Amino acid sequence: QVRQRIEQARRQREDEQRKRQLKAANVAQRWWRDARRADPDHPYLIAKCVRPHGLRQRGDELLIPLYSSGVLVNLQRITTNGNKRFLFGGRIKGTYSPLGIIEPGSVLCICEGWATAASLHQHGGYVVAAAMNAGNLIPAAMSLRARYPGQPIVIAGDDDRLTDGNPGRAAANAAAAAVGGQVAFPEWPEGAPDDLTDFNDLANWKLAHVQA
Q1: What is the DSSP letter of 100?
Q2: Most buried pick, 19, 80, 113, 155, via CB within 10 A?
C-alpha cells in the first residue's frame, strides 16, 4: 500500500508538471507569435555587443525561444537591466535555443548562455545551441545528439575560474563525454581579468582591448 501511494503521488506530480509545461508552452507560442522583432539597441544587446539574431521583444523584454524536438516550449525573458526569467512552469531540461541552421556534417556548438551563443555565431560563424545554464548542458546535448546522431558536437564551456570547483568547466567536460563530443574553453590573453568567464566576455574584452 505504501508503494502504491508513493507511485500514485509520483504520477500525480508528473501529471501536474505536464499540465504546467503545456500551459507555459501555449503562452510561449502565443507571445512569440505576437511579439515584434527585437530592437538592436536593446540595452542587453548593447551591453553584450551582439545583434538580435532573430530574437523578438515584448514590451521592454527580449524573448529568447527554447525548443524541444523542434517545438517552441518556453521563453527566457531578459529585461533592460539583464534580469532573466523563464515562463512559470515552463520546461527547461533538454531544451535549447538555436542560432544558425544545422547542416549535415557541420560542427554544432553547444554553450550555456544566449549571449555566448550569439558571440560564437556572430564572430566565428558557428551554428550554436544555447542550453541557458550549466545544469542543462548534458540534457540539451543529449537531446541534440538524439536529434542529430551524426553531427560533430563541440561543447563551448564557460571557465568559472573564480568559483570553487569551476562548475562551468566541469559541466562542459561532462556534457562532451556524454555525447562523444569535443570541448573548447576561452583562451585568455595576457592581461585579461580573472572575472571573465565565457566566449562573450572574451570577444568583448578583445574588442575593447584592440580599440583601446
Answers
A1: S
A2: 155
Query: pLDDT band for position 212 (50/70/90)?
Result: very low
Q: Which residues contact 191 (CB under 8 A, 6 or more apart)?
A: 209
Alpha carbon 124 to its chain centroid, in Å, reads 17
36-49 average pLDDT score: 97
3-class SS of residue 162: coil
Handedness of CA 117, 122, 128, 129 (dihedral sign): positive
Stretch 127-151: mean pLDDT, rounded?
96
> What percent of the chain clears pLDDT 90, i.e. is strictly above it?
93
Separation between Cα atoms, residue 52 and residue 41, nearest integer Å: 9
Q: What is the number of helices (H) and of strands (E) in the chain?
A: 6, 10
C-alpha cell at 55: 530574437
- Sheet containing strand 36-37, edge to edge, reads 36-37, 56-58, 61-68, 71-78, 84-86
pLDDT at position 1 is: 86
pLDDT range class, residue 209, cuts 50, 70, 90: confident
SS3 for 3-67 is: HHHHHHHHHHHHHHHHHHHHHHHHHHHHHHHHCEECCCCCHHHHHHCCCCCCCEEECCEEEEEEE
